[in-house]
Design a protein that fits this description.
It comes from Streptomyces pakalii. With 796 residues, this protein is of the alpha/beta class. Helices cover 32% and strands 18% of the residues. Strands 5-14-15-3-16-17 form a 6-stranded mixed beta sheet, with helices on both faces. Strands 21-24-25-20-26-27 form a 6-stranded mixed beta sheet, with helices on both faces. A 3-stranded antiparallel beta sheet has the order 2-1-4, covered by helices on one side. The chain starts with 20 loop residues before the first strand and ends with a helix. The mean pLDDT is 88.
């Protein structure tokens, strides 16, 4: 008999294969309430929940933050000293973490010298290419860089070697920066008529600059008493010498009433005090003045290319680096594909791969010279994804914050494919998302809630998409929500005429935007929507524009300070107690002296993360004990700031403990946009993207104007919040306002009275009006990409 053979048993699993989960236990960051959860590795997990429910706190502030902190700790202490130090998140156990790569919604820097090319390294590769192949040869890669100025120097240098000896040396560096505009592509010109009234003298108050009153220190004391000017002579009658001193004089020390002060010409003074600041960070009245007083024109020397004549003269196949950067990226990719030069083959291959990634991710319509500050939130996020698409890394955790923002339904499928491709390479993909089309591709879904702020922070559901649909959570109930087309649309009361619009890729567009109704401007990403609305609608006194720019604010800012709500509250406290309003500000006289009104004490530990602990003197209330003795309606200022918007609305209402109409009006607007749960003193740094967007909208609702222009107001909003937004838009229209919305969300399109669809494609394939009419007509015609997706959405 043949010997019996044993059937081989499967070997015991290797210990290394048992780490297939990311385990989070006891997470308490921000509003999380002891969250414990297990996430599968090498799968795509989508986190859902209403805006402010704790999604970002769990994904970004806990999982991704700890992963980055642990990686930073692997570097020597010397290197860590140059890196931002992070504290360990407030969590008991974090297990099974892998390296996290974060692709968030942060807008790219608005530095005028930052472009799509510089942000993605495509420019760096092009510069090397032109320095090797460009004819005539003008120098190294720096000669093609608009951020590198040309430098020449000569003089004596002392060489300390043996016997010291002095040598003559010359140094030169060829840069590509245009000397006239300093690499910005545009030059600014100041309109002097906006700075002063030349029919008046300085003593009569000639200045029309905000804050420059005729009795202020700078204008009268320095300009009037410097000795260079006659303060009683109308500016129009100044001599040539006086005018030169008045406008352009270099900083000069002068004696004024025994004090030594610095006199400086008006133009350099304005440039330092106003133009050197970030426009977005300015107060509204200052920004209005700067927009009025300063005009920007294309630089006449470089024609807007930012480059020197030498850099523009060097060409490859009749194309200069300026021409290459101005091309749409998909056209540039074809041009690079046609270059066959073995000496730079690795460079061409890397450049080709980067440019193809742009096309693949749906950004082929951009040009490399596009300023990065002009990109929308969705475009900026996809530009950040470029460097990860061709990566050979596996077993990495990719963390995405609403990657479908700014995407037309037609583009969402492409984004979904990219996320699945990253997962299929063996990576863990964590996505915070609201769109049903993106939630649909999840292997695992985590729903946080049930509400927002203090009402959220718990896991309501964990499992499959079908399980979520069947669950009784807010997301589960609203997952299949579909807005219906209106039976009747409102009739316009007038029209805003746009004629011959050519901004960016618009192709001589003529269109009438109806007024007195809800108009939605739509089209694929890059079709020209923002160019049409922001570039063609004159921003006058009657137009209130709410764009996508993020709201500025430190941990000292809160909803009360940002909306102007604190002002009437401080005055009411001051009046009720017979003291100064400044006492009721934690940033002014009322601040706790120990923590300077921050509420916490920071202990710097060098290369280690700073430690913050609540201030023992004020117990985190931020105010001096003396201030807390003053009351309004039975509450002190710290108790008022601890209230939620809904509580404060009742407290300051006509039948509340402290009726205050000015505060009640602002609180009504905050409740209108669905922020009733937010506490008045909550630091802005702890708000989610959707909450910030709605806070901004609530602030602008108080502005006086007949036309509202909203740029993607559904950004960061949960399906349940979109319903509330539609109600708000309806109330604005019914109160007599005209509302123009740039939007991709089908629920907003279906709810519109009038739709203007741009396309048919992006970049030079777009820029035309492909449909004007009611949503019902668009669905019936199905003549555009938007029409097809909207018809599918409403089920027709």
């Amino acid at each position: 008999m043949a010997p019996r053979t044993k059937t081989p048993q499967s070997p015991a699993p290797h210990a290394a294969d048992s780490h297939d989960l990311i385990r989070v236990h006891g997470a308490r960051e921000n509003n999380l309430k002891d969250v414990s959860i297990e996430l599968p590795k090498r799968r795509l997990t989508v986190f859902t929940g209403v805006s402010g429910s704790g999604k970002s706190s769990l994904v970004f502030a806990t999982i991704a933050a700890e992963s980055q902190r642990l990686i930073n700790e692997t570097y020597p202490a010397f290197v860590q000293g140059f890196m931002p130090s992070q504290a360990r998140p407030d969590v008991d156990v974090l297990d099974g973490l892998t390296t996290a790569i974060i692709v968030d919604q942060q807008r790219m820097g608005s530095d005028p010298r930052s472009t799509v090319g510089t942000a993605t390294d495509a420019n760096a590769m092009l510069r090397i290419l032109f320095s090797r192949l460009g004819k005539p040869h003008i120098g190294p890669p720096g000669a093609f860089a608009f951020n590198v100025p040309s430098v020449t120097a000569s003089g004596a240098i002392t060489v300390e070697r043996g016997n010291k000896k002095t040598e003559k040396a010359t140094f030169s560096r060829t840069g590509g920066m245009c000397p006239r505009c300093e690499g910005r592509g545009s030059v600014s010109d100041i309109d002097l008529t906006q700075l002063y009234d030349d029919s008046k003298s300085i003593a009569e108050g000639a200045f029309t600059i905000p804050g420059w009153k005729s009795d202020s220190w700078w204008t009268v004391r320095i300009y009037a008493e410097s000795g260079f000017l006659d303060p009683n002579k109308p500016i129009a009658k100044f001599t040539k010498r006086e005018m030169q001193d008045f406008l352009y004089k270099e900083p000069t020390k002068v004696k004024v009433e025994g004090s030594t002060l610095t006199f400086e010409g008006l133009i350099p003074k304005i440039q330092k005090s106003f133009l050197s600041k970030d426009r977005e960070a300015m107060q509204p009245h200052i920004r209005e003045f700067v927009d009025r007083a300063v005009t920007f024109a294309t630089c006449p020397e470089c024609e807007g290319t930012r480059l020197t004549e030498g850099a523009r003269s060097s060409k490859i196949k009749k194309i200069s680096i300026a021409d290459a950067c101005a091309m749409e990226i998909r056209d540039l990719a074809e041009w690079v594909r046609g270059l066959n030069e073995p000496s730079v083959a690795p460079l061409l291959e890397a450049l080709q791969q980067t440019l193809d990634s742009f096309v693949e991710i749906g950004l082929g319509y951009l040009a490399l010279d596009r300023p990065s500050g002009t990109l929308s939130g969705g475009e900026a996020q996809r530009v950040k994804m470029i460097r990860h698409l061709g990566s050979s890394l596996t077993d990495v955790t990719y963390v995405f914050d609403e990657p479908t923002i700014g995407l037309h339904p037609h583009d969402i499928q492409r984004m979904n494919d990219l996320l699945l491709r990253l997962r299929d390479k063996g990576n863990t993909v964590l996505v915070v998302e609201h769109k049903p089309e993106a939630i649909a591709i999840a292997d695992h879904v985590v729903d946080l809630g049930p509400g927002a702020g203090t009402a959220g922070g718990t896991v309501c559901f964990e499992g499959t998409l079908e399980g979520l649909r069947a669950s009784d959570t807010v997301t589960g109930r609203h997952l299949d929500d579909r807005a219906v087309l209106k039976d009747e649309v409102r009739k316009p009361t007038g029209a805003l005429e746009i004629r011959g619009a050519t901004a960016h890729n618009l192709q001589d567009v003529d269109v009438d935007i109806p007024l007195g109704v809800l108009t939605v401007i739509t089209g694929v990403a890059g079709s020209g929507k923002s160019s049409l609305v922001h570039g063609s609608i004159p921003a006058g006194e009657n137009v209130i524009s709410v764009d996508q720019s993020p709201i500025k604010g430190s941990r000292r800012s809160n909803p009360a300070t940002y909306t102007g709500l604190l002002e009437p509250i401080r005055k009411a406290f001051a009046k009720a107690n017979g003291v100064k309003p400044a006492l009721f500000s934690a940033n002014s006289e009322g601040a706790c002296p120990t923590c300077n009104g921050a509420g916490v004490i920071f202990t710097d530990l060098g290369v280690m993360a700073s430690v913050s602990s609540p201030c023992e003197d004020c117990e985190g209330k931020r105010f001096q004990p003396l201030v807390l003795d003053y009351h309004l309606g039975g509450r002190d200022i710290s108790e008022v700031l601890a209230m939620s918007v809904a509580e404060a609305e009742e407290f300051f209402g006509s039948s509340g403990e402290a009726p205050l109409p000015a505060a009640h009006k602002i609180l009504d607007r905050l409740a209108d946009v669905g922020l009733g749960y937010l506490s008045l003193g909550q630091p802005l740094t702890t708000l989610s993207g959707g909450e910030r967007q709605r806070l901004k909208l609530a602030t602008h609702m108080g502005d006086k104007g007949g036309t509202y222009v909203l740029d993607e107001p559904t950004t960061g909003l949960h399906l349940a919040d979109v319903e509330q937004l539609l109600g708000l838009l309806d109330r604005l229209v019914e109160s007599g306002k005209s509302v123009i919305v740039i939007e991709h969300h089908q629920a907003v399109m279906a709810h519109a009275d009038w739709i203007i669809d741009l396309g048919p494609g992006a970049g030079h394939d777009g820029g035309k009006i492909v449909f004007e009419g009611t949503p019902a007509d668009l669905v019936a015609a199905r003549s555009t990409l938007t029409g097809e997706h909207l018809a599918e959405y409403v089920g027709e």
